[in-house]
């Protein structure tokens, strides 16, 4: 971060106004330029004397943006360092918010002009602030700039700290909603971060409840996007979309009902259900850019997971062949694919033509899965309790036996 050490309180601010106004009027000639430069400097000085820091910030940032393309990166950074420092002079929290909005809105107006530097300016402004909500506003502006200026790589690392940021900012559900959607859009720019993008898009959709009937409709397009992203993703086999109200509303929507049906097939049904859907909705698949071959591949793997969860630890090769609709010699190939994708842990008994499953992934984690987990935990707790009771019982028995042996030994010594 650049550090400015002023010789007096007003000098840096007046210097910036004079510098930017001279650049703005450089081609107008002295007769036209000098009166305008003097006027701007006078307005700035009056604002400083009156302590009208918001007006000064608006004047300075407007002047700076008019000539930003004429400035070197060093000059632009120095100029904005001085402008941003004005937030420390704000007279109230409300003024801080207005000042931050005035500065950050101008910074993001020209995303294609020195985008990475503009992002750095926003980060510097963020670090100058003590006001939690003002920090949130600046962070949101940085996400917008990152996407429009194509510099998303600079903001992606910060997403790991989002939970901590949310605690610090203490924003309401509406602001959280905007944040999650903005992050999903940033991640969407990078094709290698599809899983992370879908994760934040799911967080966004999860902020809607059935009580939000008036705004639930605004999530419809993003709900469709989330479903299509999940279906397209070749390495994502689990999601928690099905029971979300923002997604469930698609089921009764004339236009999007097939999308919800497709999600239901990928999360709860097998390949035969997808084949029937494709026969009746081929245009729907094409309209969303879904490739049938890719969908079939994913559904075969998901169907194999479904088989593994249904059978009691053993799956006959014939069941895999029929369910996945493959040739007999391809069965083991698909088992290996499922293992590679970490969907199942198993051993192949080639002699008996069965797969012995030790673990399989869940396609979704809803109320049914929570209940199953609760039951398992209760069983484990009871088993551990029984083990502890047995150990304590054995310990008491052993101590009693040792006590009896000691008594007998003492009595034997007394006899002698």
UniProtKB/TrEMBL annotation:
Q: What is its main location?
A: cytoplasm
Where do the PCI domain residues begin and end?
A: 196-362
Which compartments is it annotated to reside in?
Answer: Cytoplasm
Specify whether Cytoplasm is a keyword of the entry: yes
Pfam families this protein is in?
eIF3m_C_helix, PCI
Q: Which GO terms describe its biological process?
A: formation of cytoplasmic translation initiation complex
Q: Which UniProt keywords apply?
A: Cytoplasm, Initiation factor, Protein biosynthesis
Binding partners and assembly? Component of the eukaryotic translation initiation factor 3 (eIF-3) complex.
- Summarize the protein's role: Component of the eukaryotic translation initiation factor 3 (eIF-3) complex, which is involved in protein synthesis of a specialized repertoire of mRNAs and, together with other initiation factors, stimulates binding of mRNA and methionyl-tRNAi to the 40S ribosome. The eIF-3 complex specifically targets and initiates translation of a subset of mRNAs involved in cell proliferation.
Name by which UniProt lists this protein: Eukaryotic translation initiation factor 3 subunit M
